[in-house]
Amino acid sequence: MRKPGIIYTPLPFRLGTFVHHISTPNNPALGSSARVVLAGTTTRLVGRMADCTSRSSSTVADKPTDLDGHAPNSLRIEANFTTMQSTLFTHPELPAGDQTPHRFDLQRIRYKDFPPGWGHLMIPTHSRAASLSGLSLFTPCTKKAIWFHRTAWVATKIFGHIALPGRVATWTSPLSDDAALELTARVTTKIGEFDSVAGYKRMQPGRRGFALLLLKGSEAVGFLKLREDSSDALRAERQALLSLAEFRPRTFTTPTVIDFGTVHGWQFLLTTALTSRPHRVPDGAPIMDIVSEIDSALSTLPKPSDATDAWRPMHGDFTPWNLRRTKEGRLILFDWEDASWGPEGADEVLFRATDAAVSGREVSHSSASEAISLWRTVFTERLDDTERETRLSTRVLQALAEMEA
Fold it and tell me: Of 246, 253, 313, 343, which one has the greatest count of Cβ atoms within 10 A?
């Protein structure tokens, strides 16, 4: 039996907030127009609201209604998806004597961390389509991880999120209420409304921030990266993607920049997203051709003052998990935050070393000693990161040692 005042239908998001219209034809206690705003742990009612003394008689219809004066007794609810919890609210514009506390329960938007034991992805659980879209963010490289991913995908497609291992959790966004509202307004002007998100959490201590896959039904309509620190990582990624779009590489494609800016101290980059389905490991990818096109496309990037004449443009994080093959057979290369200049052969050395680390393949000798030295320094510093990062870094360092032998 459904309880009065509780929303049982999935609530559409508008980044940091979600919007849902509910009709209450059987609730004479509510006025003809009201707007409930939940942000953080505070809730306020804006608009006109009559004395809510007969709450027990209220019912909630499942279908959305228009609030522009076309549907009486309707509510528009905007709630910050970081908490989504019940709270008391009162009408701020009514006289003090007319204020009547009223509790309105909202369905929590819940997530499952994936994969279990790592949990860098937040898979939404309110619909099967949203869960599948969230799973598409996972880019496994090892045989075991690929098998696990495919099994989870098929099981979720049949049974829904209940088939996913792990407990349901609630993620609290670090965005302030004002930042979430302003960012939502800006994003929706670029890509339109969306009704759900899947999340990606940065696990490395030195790489702070998070990302959201913006969904409309089962379709991914955008990918939003956010960074709070003062680094220029997203600015560098934007510049690299714009240069690549102008160059038009033939061996791979990249996401397209939609918007970039800063909101309340948060730098953001909005790009197109990959389709919401698993993408294949790029076995047989023409690595040297890709590296060559990266070199040519990014030649306009600013050269660091400490760069030598031998340094070349690089992706900076060219690894198997950042290169995928789509269902149509196209290669797509993403995550360009570290695009810059580096020792000659840096991208090739990194790809070969990380590929060996996750696949167990042998690596041959490389003469790019300066590039090997660069990555040895980088991965040595990561030995003090999370347990998973430490294991991966150890294997990469072993591969680098074999390349230098």
Answer: 313
